[in-house]
Amino acid sequence: MEENLKQQHTSIVKFALFGPESSGKTTLASQLADYFDTVWAPEYAREYLENKLDKTEQICEPEDLLPIAVGQTKAENDALLTANKYLFCDTSLLVTKVFSEIVYNFCDPVLNKAARKHKYDLFFLTDIDVLGNRMVCEINLMIEKKHLLSLKMH
Fold first, then answer.
1. Alpha helices (runs of H) in 36-122, residue ranges in sequence order
2. Could you tell me how far CA 88 lies from the centroid of its own chain?
3. Among the listed residues 125, 113, 128, 114, the one whose alpha carbon sits nearest the alpha carbon of residue 152
4. CA distance 86 to 31
5. Which pLDDT tens digit goes with each residue over 3-50?
């Protein structure tokens, strides 16, 4: 499993978009890739969880996080093959790690280790810009604090 979580070494400049759900990471990654005439690595969790919901009518569970991390790593490594100077990553394993810690109060040691080993040249920290109900805002503030703490420890 750990072998499937290794990033390819590259001279491509890698940017990771880091932030809570629905904060514009996908839109920003796509637009930056278009502007710089390169590719971007989409968030694998979205595809994985949509397929899971369609097939089993189940949502994300802790045992989904390692397959999601493997899929995300593969998406980034595959995108490097066609990237032109830059690669914009819609998410990173750090986001998956923080999600696991917040939602499940636990992070698999293999995911934790891989998330800490993954390297990017620059992080873009995103935040929501549309106010929702109070509980959603409080949850997103908690997630943002965890993201910032993870970046400081990274």
1. 44-56, 65-80, 93-104, 109-117
2. 11
3. 125
4. 13
5. 899 999 999 999 999 877 778 889 999 999 999 999 999 999 999 999
